[in-house]
Structure formats: C-alpha cells, structure tokens
Design a protein that fits this description.
Layout (H helix, E strand, L loop, with lengths): L8 E7 L8 H19 L7 E7 L4 H7 L5 E4 L6 H11 L4 E5 L3 E3 L3 H9 L7 E6 L8 H14 L8 E2 L6 E5 H6 L13 H11 L4 E11 L5 H22 L2 H5 L5 H22 L5 H15 L1 H10 L2 H31 L8
Parallel strand pairs: 1-2, 1-4, 2-3, 6-9
Antiparallel strand pairs: 4-8, 5-9, 6-8, 7-9
Amino acid sequence: MILYKKHKISIVVPFFFSNKKDNKHKDGFALVSFNKCLLAISRIKNYNNYEVILVSDNSSKESISVAEKYPFKIKKLKKNFGAAYARNKGAIEAKGEVLLFIDSDVEIHPKTLQIINKYNNNKKFSGVLQGVYSHKPDYKNIINQYLQSYWCYYIFLATNVNKYTQILCSCLFSIKKDIFFKVGMFNRGFKKADPEDLHLGYRLIEKGYKISLGRKMSCKHHINLTLYTFIKRTLRIHYNECLMHLRDSTLITKIRTINYNSIILGIVLIFLLISLSISSFFYPVSHFREIFIVLNFLFLLTNILFLKFILIEKNFFIALKIIPLIYLHRFLFIICFFLGIVSFYIFKKKSSIN
C-alpha cells in the first residue's frame, strides 16, 4: 500500500507580449518579469517529478527568445486567443496528474511543488489549491503597492485563518487534471485578463469542490502599473466581471464572499457621496457639510481593518497614501456596475465572451 506518492505535476505558464513596435518599451518590464518567473521554476531542486509547458499565445519574438533559454516545452499558438484558451491548450498537452497554473509575472516559492504534493497526499483534500501573493515585497509605486495589499487582504484573506477561499485566482493555483477536465476547463471565450479564473472557481464550488487556501504556497508578483493603466485595467476586468455575475446570477454569491462586506458598504457610501455632491449643484442641501463629513468618516471606518493591515505590514505613510486610491477604486466599481447593468439589461450584452 502506497502511503506517500510523488505526483507528477505539470506546470502551465501562458504568455503573451505584443508584437507591436509601440509596445516594446512597455513590455520591457514584463519580459524581465517573465524571465524571473522561468528562472524561479528552473531553480526547483527539491522535487523532480514535474514538467513545464510554456504556451505562447502568439507572443512576440523577444518573449520566445526568453522562453527558449530554458529547457521547457514551448507550445506556440498561431493566433492570440486569450489566456483561458492558452491555459486549456497547456492542460491538454500535460502528462501530469496535477496541473499547476502560473502567471508569467510571478516568481514561485522554491518549495511550491512539495507543498502541492503534500496536499494531494491528504485524503481529505478536494483537489484544488489556491496559492497567494506574498505581501513582503515593498513597491516604490504606491499604485502597485495598493493593488498588492488589496489582493493579499481581500482575495487571499491574509488576516484570516480560513482554510478555504471562495475566489479562484489564476496567478498561482493547482488542480487535479481529472477535475479540471470534468468541470469543462476554462471558458475559452474570455479574452485578455478577464474573469475566466473567477468563473472556473464558481463552477468548482457549484459542483461541490472546496478551494483550499495554501498560504505557504506564496509567490512574488511583478507589476508595473501607472494611474492610467490601473484605471483602464480595473474598468475592463470589473465590467466583464459584472456582466458575468448578471448572466450567471452569482452577484449575491460575490457579495457574500468573505471580507467583501466592507467593499460593498464602501461602494454604497461613495455612491451617496457622489449623489450628495451632484445634488448640491442644483439646489441647496440642508446640512451638506455635516452629511459630507459623516459619510467620509463612515467610509474610512469601513476600511479601517484594511488600513490597519497595511499599517502593521508596511507603515503609516503607505497607509495614508493608499486612502485616495481606495476612494478611486470604489468609484471605479460603481462605474463598472452601472455600465454592466446598462449593457446587460438595455443592450442585452450577456458577457464579454459573446
């Protein structure tokens, strides 16, 4: 009787870097990150039963050159189909019993494969393990720092002791291959950085699978966003996410997600602040100043635990600088929500995959 087994793990890394000349400078940072991602994988020494499949989603020659420096299998797609399609292609090529999906901008922990194997040798393990972003790196850009802290606190539940998560994130997660194919893989209609991972997570939970949260399976995330790219990225992702929730009737499930109560309340308060400010332009609002101050106080109060998390993990000045970005982020949520409502109910747009 086998008590402990070394499962074969197939690491799938999709990558896409534009071939357009005007994107060369922008992709410079991303190519360096991609190289760090592959370098981290190549340095795995404590687990030898694995394979690596890199899937080029019709990526640039420069990125192919980076990939070819390593002894990994490269699957080249002739068209840019999107990350979901590329991951599915990698899974089809995989020979392992366990799939490990990694984004091209993360560095995995040296013991990642050992951690995955340990979970898969536990009879109580459901077969899906979510890795987390590390909150240790300090980012010089406050936008990058805010997003990293946001993901760590709200998505990966950094301050909670929960063993499971209700959100699947494709940055770093493993799943038994038979389960992946049983639930229908990623919906390949999703394009770019759309919520195909969130969509897969809901389908897994709907079918009775629990998504284990592996806090020891952490990775460094290399991001390089400006204010403009942060706004553009947020609007695209959450707009498509809103359409997905409306189409699949999972909006209530999202609202009930752990840690999301403060976000929902914050969105409501920002909406009230905007409504109050607009109303004051047309007619005098009684006790405007007092109401405005109270709403802002309540908004900050709803985010007090998040700010406390940043204060403890980072410092007071970073927590202070992040406050305006919290306001902006919640405002962008409101825009996405109303755009989604209008697109879904008036223009009958069911999702980004139509």
